[in-house]
Amino acid sequence: MVIAVAAGKGGTGKTLVAVNLALSLQRSGIETVLVDADVEEPNDHLFVKPAISRRREVTLAIPRVDASLCDRCGECSSFCAYGALATAPDRVIVFNDLCHGCGGCALVCPAGAISEVERVIGTIEEGRTPEGMGFMRGLLEIGEPKAGPIISAMKESLASAVVNVVDCGPGTGCAVMNAVHGSDVCVMVTEPTPFGLHDMDMAVRMAGALGVPSLVVMNKDVPENTEVKRFCAEHGLEIALSIPFSLETARLTSRGVNLVDSGEGWRSAFLSLYQRITSLARSGGA
């Protein structure tokens, strides 16, 4: 099973939910892997302290043009949908940051002037936490614009026999869509603010467009809030867990203490969330 934890808005508590859900499952005898797919700013390791046993580079194939063979016909630049090549009178210019590594330019070049070289764009690290839970995270190289290839490589390593809890990045862009796509359920974490509601709306529509059913975790919940709850009721979204607005919760997380380490009640709460997730996955969101 693959459970994506998303939100739309940054800072709503995706890591809080992903980490505590994964720990609750692992401690209950359900083999779990926590996957940090926020490759631009991964931080799950701060809360589970894994021992990394494997590192591998992620590369992207970038075109290189042999000037002695190129006749500047323009086929490559005309083909490229991303504008990564431009044909000038004396040469073909390659914009590495725009290249998506599809290899099409090399295929359409009639002179055979284009080859590909591998460029490292990031790293994937894998290991286990002290209590035996699997862990994986991606690290995008500084200055690299595309997180998608790293997330795709991580998803190829997911095992079907375990529960994979995928902590997505913020927003609803390509990287998050890549992480959510193909998941069994998307847990939407929101907060009772106008920004939280606005961005959750976008994230729910994104998951729906990808065919992934959603349920909601309300973080920093306050009794008088009604807007987010009204939205969920109107759109048939179950609020499967409410985490109250609490100074003590803020103190715990700021010290790196997980909720499930602060009281048995939280473990039960996150296991109940998992039951709602599995129920939604079985029903297919119907």
Descriptive overview:
This protein is α/β, with parallel strands linked by helices and 286 residues long. The protein folds into two domains: 204 residues, Rossmann fold, CATH 3.40.50.300; 62 residues, 2-Layer Sandwich (Alpha-Beta Plaits), CATH 3.30.70.20. 34% of the residues lie in helices and 27% in strands. The strands form two sheets. The protein has a nine-stranded mixed beta sheet, sandwiched between helices. It has a two-stranded antiparallel ribbon with strand order 4-5. Helix 8 links the parallel strand 10 and strand 11. The longest helix has 20 residues. The two termini are 18 Å apart.
What are the defining features of this structure?
nine-stranded mixed β-sheet; two-stranded antiparallel sheet; 2 domains; 286 residues; Alpha-Beta Plaits; elongated; alpha/beta; Rossmann fold; 11 strands
Provide a concise account of the structure shown:
The chain is α/β, with parallel strands linked by helices. About 35% of the residues lie in helices and about 25% in strands.
Blueprint of the fold:
Blueprint: E1 2-6, H1 14-27, E2 32-36, H2 45-48, E3 51-65, H3 75-79, E4 85-87, E5 92-94, H4 104-108, E6 114-128, E7 134-140, H5 148-156, E8 163-167, H6 174-180, E9 185-190, H7 194-209, E10 214-221, H8 227-234, E11 239-244, H9 247-254, H10 264-283
Parallel strand pairs: 1-8, 1-9, 2-7, 2-8, 9-10, 10-11
Antiparallel strand pairs: 3-6, 4-5, 6-7
Helix pairs in contact: 1-10, 5-6
